[in-house]
Amino acid sequence: MSTAIMERPTAPSNAAGSSDSRSIHLAFTSADQVHEGLENAVETLIETAAQDGTCGIRVTRLEPGHYKVALDESVPFGETHEDIAA
Q: Is residue 32's pLDDT more than 70?
């Protein structure tokens, strides 16, 4: 995975987010933002996954209000899996 970081408008403007072409990190300040922000991030990565055709998407809750949405080769193409980090 690349270490390049860029800002993407994948979440509401008062949520912080950064990403590379294979993952998006999101931080939300309100529970009301989570659903829409995660949906936008997944939609963004679906485009990349469709071009690659070899992996699915994993959404991981890192801690309250902090999520990572990433392409993951252990997830079958066309599927999205959800996890909670330990």
A: yes
Could you give the CA distance from residue 1 to residue 9 in angstroms, rounded to a whole number? Answer: 21
* Nearest CA-CA partner of 70 in 59, 84, 81: 59
CA distances from 56 to 14, 46, 50, 65, 70 (A): 28, 8, 9, 23, 8
Residues forming a β-bridge with 17: 26
Yes or no: say if 60 and 81 are a contact pair by the CB < 8 Å rule: no
pLDDT over 90, % of the chain = 65
* CB neighbours of residue 18 within 10 Å: 15
pLDDT for residue 17: 52
